[in-house]
Design a protein that fits this description.
The complex is a heterodimer of chains A (72) and B (694). Chain A contains 2 helices and 5 strands, in the order βαβββαβ. By secondary structure, chain A is of the alpha+beta class. In chain A, β3 and β4 form a beta hairpin. The longest helix of chain A has 9 residues, at 18-26. In chain A, 50% of the residues are buried. The model of chain A has no long low-confidence stretch (mean pLDDT 79). Helices cover 61% and strands 5% of the residues of chain B. Chain B has a 6-stranded mixed β-sheet, sandwiched between helices. Residues 688-694 of chain B have low confidence and may be disordered. Classes of the chains: A alpha+beta (72), B mainly alpha (694). Chain A binds chain B through residues 14-15, 17-28, 30-33, 38-39, 41-46, 48, 50, 52-59, 61-62, and chain B through 58-59, 61, 63, 88-89, 91-92, 95, 196-199, 225-231, 234, 251-254, 258, 262, 264, 267-268, 360-362, 364-366, 368-369, 373-374, 461, 463, 465-470.
Chain lengths: 72, 694
């Protein structure tokens, strides 16, 4: 998956891990919501999303499970 | 009547600030999440209400260790609750408020504007929708009265009728109602948590297979998932905000400055620049100048007193006790007060500005290489000040494993207690060149990376994700930085006046008396207790060039507090502050070093063992066995490092170089293999053994 900074993405699925999915949903990462990728981290091993003033660092594996659709 | 009031809210919402305001206390606050990691209790000023400051949480789900403290306190207590809401993060904060309503809790909302003076929200409307009292947090003296008045009212803890999504779960409420009442939890809360597959709650409710089947059927039939439940919550929050806000609301958090601060290239440049300025001012320009002033005037004062005492013919024993045992040692440490205070000023300013949270981003990926999340930067940042408090801050870690790792690694940083030792040795052997101080800081970071890699073994980065709060950048409040620095400096002085004073008297006693309790003084026939113990242990330190009983005694004393190392050396050498530097090079002194042994001593004293207070915290947080393991590893690393460096500098022969390389490679390989074999699954390399098989 090749994500671009400052682009909007729509979430279409959640990670399989229930604990992780629940926490992501509570922070605004629920299916159908649109999130913005603000910065890909220094070594580009993980992604940093900012949602409701909380930055969430997600590894590539998790991001792939989220299935993000480019909205722009 | 239960007079306990729980203070809950999101991380960095201003709970401790409110706690300080209401209880007139002075607890540490900071512009980053995770400042509070455990409960703090105190009576609200001039009332009989006991306010409990709880760690921040985003929801009533246990995720990190400190969130468990909050969730357990909120759910299983009948106490009143104050829910503090950060106006800059209304959507996120109201999610917790909604969950408190779901849990049927009696609470009042305090709206914290956090420097946002244009608060365009209809408080009365918000209060009527949520059926809870809402009070605006300001510095007004009326605030205490308003809050007390709200707390004394009994609010309706029943579910709010106009929260429409609650009706979606009425069928499940009926299923879990009986079990929920048994564990004294709200049925609606239990119903929603069951639908969210919250395993801990399902276990607590002891739902039988039939009930679980019915809940699952209900989920399938109505297409309910974790995502849909939270979507309903956020849709309701959007509705609240539409009705209550006078103008469009936008979250802040990520500003244009971040484009520069978090830029892949500039982030590193900026971080390096800040570090350089901090070290230059603390160790090279202002810090040493202020220290020399303190040293000069204190020595002057001592010499005046000394004349006075001699004039009154006091005994040599008494003079030795007062001047060598107490005053001289205290002044040696006190002269470092300016440098330590400068370091505290910079740490407080960085914390206040909001930059520390952004550092967590910069280090997220770098730390992932050594098996940690960027959030650990808070712990390591605090380690530069005090290792003990840094270890406590590790409770913000996402899981126990990461918490233990952060605790394990924090003593490898150079805390302010080690600064005096480092500074004096750099002055003695490197002409006080501050670049060498930076070099030792870099060495400490390299050792930290080495140990972190050892702990990580062959494990791949797990799918653990980290959440970092994005505070807004603040204009640094000089008043706040000043107050924090004064508080920390006073702690430093108090430590000198209490622990160190007792320690110095003890060290003086051990240095001047033998086992028969005879005063040794200048009597060469008698052996002091420290020299006797030192002679027993010193052969062990011969391979690292420290086979001097007095050095061993100083290092042993340093376990109580690192500052004591220097005062012990001074006691042994019988010199004043200005002579200490030269006495370290003077071969006629009891404790003296050549270049190689000095470097070996610096390295060994930086890493050999954490101080007593840190060991106590380690034991509390990780258990005795892991603490012992951590101490042994730390001692082994300090010994090994000193051994390699000392022998390399002393002999500079190829055979030693090869020996050093061989020892390093062997240790790394054996440790990695140990962790791979004992701790981690051989199939996926990221779960504990047996998890994969399950």
């Amino acid at each position: 998956m090749n994500l671009k900074v400052n682009r909007k993405y729509k979430i279409t699925s959640l990670p399989r891990d229930i604990m992780l999915a629940r926490r992501l949903c509570e922070l605004g990462f629920y299916i159908g919501n649109i999130i913005v990728l603000k910065k890909i981290s220094l070594l580009k091993k993980s992604y940093l999303f900012i949602c409701r003033n909380v930055a969430i660092s997600l590894t590539r594996n998790i991001v792939e499970e989220l299935v993000l659709i480019d909205e722009q | 009547m239960n007079n306990e009031v729980l203070l809950v809210g999101n991380p960095n919402a201003g709970k401790t600030t409110l706690f300080n305001f209401l209880t007139k206390s002075d607890e540490h606050t900071g512009n980053w999440s995770g400042v509070t990691v455990d409960k703090k209790e105190k009576e609200i000023f001039a009332t009989n209400y006991k306010l409990v400051d709880l760690p921040g949480t985003y929801s009533l789900t246990n995720y990190s260790l400190e969130e468990q403290v909050t969730t357990q306190s909120v759910l299983y207590n009948e106490s009143k609750i104050i829910n503090i809401i950060d106006f800059n993060n209304l959507k996120r904060s109201l999610l917790l408020s909604l969950q408190l309503i779901e849990a049927g809790k009696d609470f009042i909302i305090i709206l914290n504007p956090i420097k946002n003076k244009k608060l365009k929200i209809n408080i009365n409307k918000l209060s009527s929708i949520l059926k809870r009292n809402v009070v605006l947090f300001n510095d007004n003296k009326k605030l205490n009265r308003d809050i007390i008045s709200c707390l004394s009212k009994k609010t309706n803890t029943q579910y709010v009728d106009n929260i429409d999504y609650f009706n979606n779960f009425s069928d499940v409420v009926e299923i879990v109602k009986e079990k929920a009442e048994k564990v004294k939890l709200a049925p609606l809360f239990c119903a929603i948590k069951s639908l969210e597959d919250d395993e801990s709650l399902i276990t607590k409710l002891a739902l039988n297979n039939d009930e679980i089947y019915k809940i699952n059927e209900y989920k399938k039939k109505n297409n309910i998932s974790i995502s849909s439940i939270n979507k309903l919550r956020f849709e309701f929050i959007d509705k609240i905000l539409d009705e209550c806000l006078y103008e469009n609301y936008s979250t802040i958090g990520y500003s244009k400055i971040d484009n520069l601060i978090l830029n892949n290239f500039f982030s590193i440049v900026f971080f390096t620049l800040i570090s350089f300025v901090v070290f230059y001012i603390t160790f090279c320009s202002l810090g040493p100048y202020l220290s020399s002033l303190i040293n000069y005037y204190s020595e002057l004062l001592i010499s005046l007193y000394l004349k006075l005492f001699f004039a009154n013919n006091f005994s040599a024993f008494f003079l030795s006790f007062i001047f060598e045992g107490v005053l001289s040692g205290l002044i040696t440490i006190l002269q470092f007060l300016p440098q330590v205070s400068l370091l505290f000023i910079f740490l407080a300013a960085l914390e206040e500005s909001g930059y520390i949270s952004k550092m967590a981003f910069i280090f997220e990926d770098i730390f992932s290489l050594i098996g940690l999340s960027g959030k650990s930067i808070f712990t390591f940042f605090m380690s530069l000040g005090c290792t003990t408090s840094a270890m406590l801050s590790a409770r913000t870690a996402v899981n126990k494993e990461e918490q233990n790792k952060a605790i394990f690694l924090s003593p490898y940083f150079i805390c302010t207690a080690k600064v005096p030792v480092l500074t004096i040795f750099i002055a003695a052997f490197f002409n006080g060149n501050f670049l060498y101080i930076i070099l030792f800081y870099i060495i400490s970071i390299l050792v930290f990376i080495f140990v972190a890699l050892l702990l990580k073994g062959k494990r791949k980065k797990s799918d653990v994700f980290s959440i970092i709060d994005m505070p807004n950048y603040n204009v640094i409040s000089f008043k706040k930085v000043f107050n924090t620095t004064i508080k920390n400096a006073l702690n430093f002085i108090t430590k000198i006046g209490s622990v160190l004073l007792i320690c110095l008297v003890l060290v003086w006693f051990l240095n001047n008396f033998d086992f028969g309790l005879r005063y040794v003084g200048n009597n060469t026939k008698l052996k002091s207790i420290t020299i006797f113990i030192g002679e027993l242990i010193s052969p062990l330190l011969a391979p690292i060039g420290l086979n001097n009983p007095a050095i061993v005694a100083s290092l042993l004393a340093g376990v109580v507090a690192k500052e004591v190392i220097l005062t012990s050396i001074k006691l042994f050498n019988g010199c004043d502050g200005s002579e200490l530097v030269s006495s370290l090079r003077d071969s006629s002194s009891i404790i003296s070093f050549d270049g190689a042994s000095a470097i070996s001593f610096i390295l060994f004293s930086l890493f050999y063992l954490p101080c007593i207070s840190s060991i106590v915290v380690m034991r509390k947080e990780m258990g005795g066995k892991k603490t012992l393991k951590a101490c042994l590893i730390q001692f082994a690393i300090a010994y090994l490092l000193s051994f390699l460096v000392y022998n390399f500098l002393k002999h500079t022969k190829l055979i030693y170089l090869m020996l050093c390389a061989f020892i390093f490679i062997t240790i790394f390989a054996v440790s990695s293999r140990y962790y791979k074999k004992n701790n981690w699954c051989s199939i996926c390399k990221k779960c504990k053994i047996n998890c994969c098989k399950k």
